[in-house]
Design goal:
The structure is a homodimer. Helices cover 74% and strands 0% of the residues of chain A. The first copy, chain A, is mainly α. The first copy, chain A, has 2 domains: 28-74, Arc Repressor Mutant, subunit A (Orthogonal Bundle), CATH 1.10.10.60; 88-130 and 137-224, Orthogonal Bundle (Tetracycline Repressor, domain 2), CATH 1.10.357.10. The first copy, chain A, starts with a helix and ends with a helix. The structure holds a DNA duplex.
DNA sequence: CGATGATGTTACTACAAGTAGGTTACCGAT
DNA sequence: ATCGGTAACCTACTTGTAGTAACATCATCG
């Protein structure tokens, strides 16, 4: 209809008339474009929420047309999953890296916790995605994301295994879930309270859960 | 304009031609219709998820036209909030009732936990709503629901207060958040494992968190 | 140069949220 | 008994957004 817009856009690749701010839509390799899309999508999804976000808006902010998003991610949910996967990968990398330098299991847990809370305070956008990831995955691609999430607890489970090998499998799994749940909720709580430092948050978790588990598991180990 | 359709509809209230299955749409008082809508909506939201559910489908299953839903709940999100509010009210009632008969604080916590896990195993639909409630509330009516959710932790906070009055406010709040988070995650975990009984789940929580907090808070109280 | 495939676009369809304005059944008062 | 008046309800529409088909353009390598 309004061909003025289309025409002006068509001028873009060529050097603009001079006074225009050069919204230069350049072609770029797939990988780079993909990262750019994920960056923009994460920002908007985190700000407005999944439902209130439109693909048109993301496309516009990226400086590309909507079918490109579908070319790269298949669907709106696919795009969301992309952002979630990226965010979770970064979180995972941060925590695993922090754990590597630990001297014993308690130290590993504490360092992992601190890294986790540091991540969620410095990457609020990513966290607000991860926090809600389970919500929209009722039927479709839920399993894939659920699997990724599972990896989060696997680290915990591994720690548990090293710490309390004699305790039965199910109790260890439950303990890992409890720890993760506690962390997630406390992280959300911290969002409204900037005065709580990551170290402090980690300490809350340690005091509330770890020392209790320690006593309990040690007791179990002796009883068994 | 197309009065043919209107005419055929007009036949509905009157007894149908005979072989039809009597889609008799009866009028009913507001309160009753509202409850009916919430029941259907909860079922469909829980089954398909918020995004994949259409208002048309809910309206059809209720046996009413779409504008009715908007008359009663204002928007799709309003309808969701209605179902969440109802589910949370029921959960709250269950747990508070269970706590009343307790003889001390530890007993109160244990009874509350058992009631919680019993609720989420017997009301899976309600739980799958509550579990994800935070996801869609990025900007709009989030505060209202968040407030309701806050009440969930208030009971915990109150218990903490009674149990460890000398511990500073913030630690107590954090402890309450941790407990709630642990419960939520463990509840989701239990969904895939029918062999875990509510009593068992409650025991997991008690062992992981409570005894630890007990020792820790008692220690703090002595230090302070 | 010119073919080929990757990157990108316009212009559409289908469907769902939300609304304007009119209709019908119930209920209480005359 | 019947006749307003109102609460419950409907049809038919607009608007907006996910998703798609078919076409266009840039880059690169023979």
């Amino acid at each position: 209809m309004v061909d003025l817009i289309a025409d002006s856009r068509r001028l873009n690749p060529v050097t603009a008339t001079g006074n225009e701010q050069a919204p230069v839509r350049k072609r770029m390799p797939r990988a780079e474009r993909e990262r750019q899309m994920l960056t923009v999508a994460e920002e908007i999804f985190a700000a407005r929420g999944f439902v209130a976000t439109s693909m048109d808006e993301i496309a516009e902010r990226v400086g590309v047309s909507k079918p490109m998003l579908y070319e790269y991610f298949g669907s709106k949910e696919g795009l969301l999953i992309g952002t979630i996967r990226q965010a979770r990968a970064e979180l995972r990398r941060s925590t695993e890296e922090a754990v590597l330098g630990a001297i014993d299991i308690e130290d590993a847990l504490r360092k992992g916790l601190v890294a986790f809370f540091e991540f969620i305070t410095s990457h609020r956008q990513s966290w607000s995605l991860l926090r809600n990831e389970g919500a929209l995955m009722a039927n479709s691609a839920g399993s894939e994301v659920e699997q990724t999430r599972q990896q989060q607890t696997n680290l915990m489970t591994a720690l548990m295994q090293g710490f309390a090998p004699t305790v039965d499998e199910k109790s260890r799994e439950a303990a890992a879930e409890i720890l993760v749940g506690a962390c997630e909720r406390l992280a959300t709580w911290c969002e409204h309270r900037d005065e709580v430092t990551p170290v402090q948050a980690a300490e809350y978790i340690m005091r509330a859960c770890w020392y209790g588990m320690l006593a309990e598991f040690r007791g179990d180990a002796q009883n068994a």
